[in-house]
What does this fold into?
Amino acid sequence: DSGVTQTPKHLITATGQRVTLRCSPRSGDLSVYWYQQSLDQGLQFLIQYYNGEERAKGNILERFSAQQFPDLHSELNLSSLELGDSALYFCASSRHRDEAFFGQGTRLTVV
Amino acid sequence: GQNIDQPTEMTATEGAIVQINCTYQTSGFNGLFWYQQHAGEAPTFLSYNVLDGLEEKGRFSSFLSRSKGYSYLLLKELQMKDSASYLCAVRDVGNNRKLIWGLGTSLAVNP
It folds into this structure.
């Protein structure tokens, strides 16, 4: 158990809908990262937050947004969902300069 | 540009030794990570190199040459449970020190 908790584990939704994925980082970790992993793409970095502020942005679509709350948990919002958004979404957390610890992921299926 | 290259697939025999290579080109360098990922599961941290040389951790070792932009992960006494994808990731100095990920090497260990 990495100490990073993601909910829900599985999500099935229709095209055009909006979903929210939630992540609780390890105790004491200030950085939260969101990744998307689809079968043919590998891990794609989406966005990083550090202590409530956006720190770095990767290949995140405009339809996607995220935030980190004062208690350091984070949410990833995916809207106007398309079939191609079906993927595993991972959250990871880390302390300064340390390795990232990953949650078990949310498997999103858009039908 | 930024690029990380790893072989897509490798096959080895139980009990043998396998070396998985990773070459990288990034605008800056502040450490290289190796992660193991079983299908459908979260990546788990294996090793971290920031200085040149070999880091040994049980059956797994990782080597880094910064001048060559090259690393390898060495797995000894292979076990069936080592069948997984192995991901190489480089921490960039710029880009707010985010991790740049390779696509992973899928290792199959045969009896």
Q: What stands out?
A: Chain B has a mean pLDDT of 92. The interface with chain A takes residues 31, 33, 40-45, 48, 87, 95-104 of chain B (CB under 8 Å). The two ends of chain B are 41 Å apart (CA to CA). The first strand of chain B starts at residue 3 and ends at 5.
